[in-house]
């Protein structure tokens, strides 16, 4: 019998395609944010572990200061890619690329920093949250405390009601969309302010189930037919400047099964539940939105939920 993780791996696909990793190298926001955060968090002589190394670029950033970097990758194609790239880059000799499952691997010695990149919005599809929670338990059993610093240190997730255009040259298709965060899309209308629905702090234990029920005040009349999911990775907390180094994933817009007509001032109630690492359909199936109060009945009594 396959266990839940094995069944979901078959359903979701075992590995992210190699070309997707190549595209990630061209994502300037991602590259600059991680390079800055790693340069801040990794001090000279530190030992670093990367869980899910991909092309090896984050391990490369760490190797600039670290004395040793363990780069763990389960996809054999990416293991070859990482070894090839690190061999032609400075400090590549300090990185050991290990073909192993991050759910099972522990380094041969204590490490100071663990990098585990969160690629997917809402902590869906991929298993980083589960990987980190499993790693913490096994690491403490073998080495005791303290735990290493994790990157990202935390993740903030928010949701926002939208009116989304789904007309593609006359073809109506309510599809899942991923949008860059710094681009204005004429077919996307924000119907209310975003609301934070979950904060994961990796210094603390985290539950695998993520659920939320909350309210929004509609800011303009129209049709709420989609929800935008926003994920901000707090890569490093810069204490001396009281600031953070962040990376914002692409927005994910999910169509609602039942669009809702709403007027300015109406109060919407939204709810959903899913498992960290679960599939998009599992989130979509639980997603509910309805008008809780109409503006004519409850004027000016409900403040918007801000992210």
From TrEMBL:
GO terms for biological process: methylation. InterPro entries: Arg_MeTrfase (IPR025799), Methyltransf_25 (IPR041698), SAM-dependent_MTases_sf (IPR029063). The keyword Transmembrane helix does not apply. It comes from the Bacteria. GO terms for molecular function: histone methyltransferase activity; protein-arginine N-methyltransferase activity. The keyword 4Fe-4S does not apply. Keywords: Methyltransferase, Transferase. Residues 48-137 form the Methyltransferase domain. This is Methyltransferase domain-containing protein. It comes from Pseudoduganella aquatica.
């Amino acid at each position: 019998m396959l266990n839940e993780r094995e069944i979901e791996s078959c359903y979701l696909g075992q590995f992210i395609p190699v070309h997707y990793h190549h595209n990630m190298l061209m994502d300037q926001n991602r590259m600059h944010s991680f390079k800055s955060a790693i340069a801040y968090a990794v001090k000279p002589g530190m030992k670093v572990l990367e869980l899910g190394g991909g092309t090896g670029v984050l391990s490369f950033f760490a190797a600039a200061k670290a004395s040793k970097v363990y780069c763990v990758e389960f996809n054999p194609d990416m293991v070859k890619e990482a070894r090839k790239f690190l061999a032609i880059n400075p400090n590549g000799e300090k990185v050991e690329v290990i073909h192993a499952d991050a759910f099972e691997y522990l380094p041969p010695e204590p490490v100071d920093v663990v990098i585990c990149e969160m690629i997917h919005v809402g902590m869906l599809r991929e298993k980083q949250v589960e990987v980190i929670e499993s790693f913490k338990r096994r690491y403490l059993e073998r080495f005791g405390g303290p735990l290493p610093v994790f990157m990202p240190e935390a993740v903030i997730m928010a949701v926002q009601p939208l009116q989304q255009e789904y007309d593609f040259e006359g073809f109506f298709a309510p599809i899942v969309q991923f949008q860059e965060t710094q681009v204005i899309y004429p077919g996307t209308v924000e119907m209310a302010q975003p609301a934070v629905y979950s904060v994961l702090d990796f210094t603390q234990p985290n539950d695998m189930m993520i659920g939320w029920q909350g309210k929004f005040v509609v800011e303009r009349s129209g049709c709420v037919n989609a929800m935008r999911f926003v994920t901000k990775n707090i890569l490093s907390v810069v204490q001396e400047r009281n600031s953070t180094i962040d990376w914002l994933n692409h927005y994910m817009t999910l169509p609602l099964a039942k669009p809702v007509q709403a007027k300015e001032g109406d109060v919407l109630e939204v709810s959903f539940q899913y498992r960290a690492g679960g599939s998009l359909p599992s989130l979509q199936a639980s997603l509910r939105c309805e008008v809780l109060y109409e503006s004519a009945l409850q004027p000016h009594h409900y403040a918007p939920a801000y992210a």
